[in-house]
Amino acid sequence: MNTVKKALCTTLVIGSAALAAPVSAAQFVAADSTPGTQICMAVASNKAYVLRKAQQSLNVKKSIISNKLTCNNLPMGDFVARYNLDKSANYLNIESNTRTSIKDLAKVSSPEVVVISSPQ
Description:
Elements: H1 2-20, E1 27-30, H2 35-44, H3 48-58, H4 62-67, E2 70-71, E3 74-75, H5 76-82, H6 86-91, E4 113-116
Parallel strand pairs: 1-4
Antiparallel strand pairs: 2-3
C-alpha cells in the first residue's frame, strides 16, 4: 500500500510540473538595433527589471511604450497577449485578463522563432 501511495504522489508531482512548464516558448530575435526594437526585445524578455533598465537607458516613458509603440505591427496590448508576456503587461499596466486565447497544450513542436521589429 505504501508503494501505491508513493507512485500516486510521484505521478501527481510530475503531472503538475508538466502542466506548469510552457510547452513551447517563442525565441525572440531582434531585426535591427533601433530604440523601438530594443524596447520590444525588453518587453519580450518578460522581465520587469530588463524592461525598466531599457526604458531608463533609452529615456522612454511607460505610457509611450504601452499606448504608442508597436512591435511586429501589433499594438503593445496585442503583442503581450499573443506571446503571453504577463510580467511585461503587469509592469506596463496593460490589462491582459480581458483577452481570450486558445492554446493547444498537446501540440509538441520546436520553439517558434519570432523576429522582432518596430517602426523607425
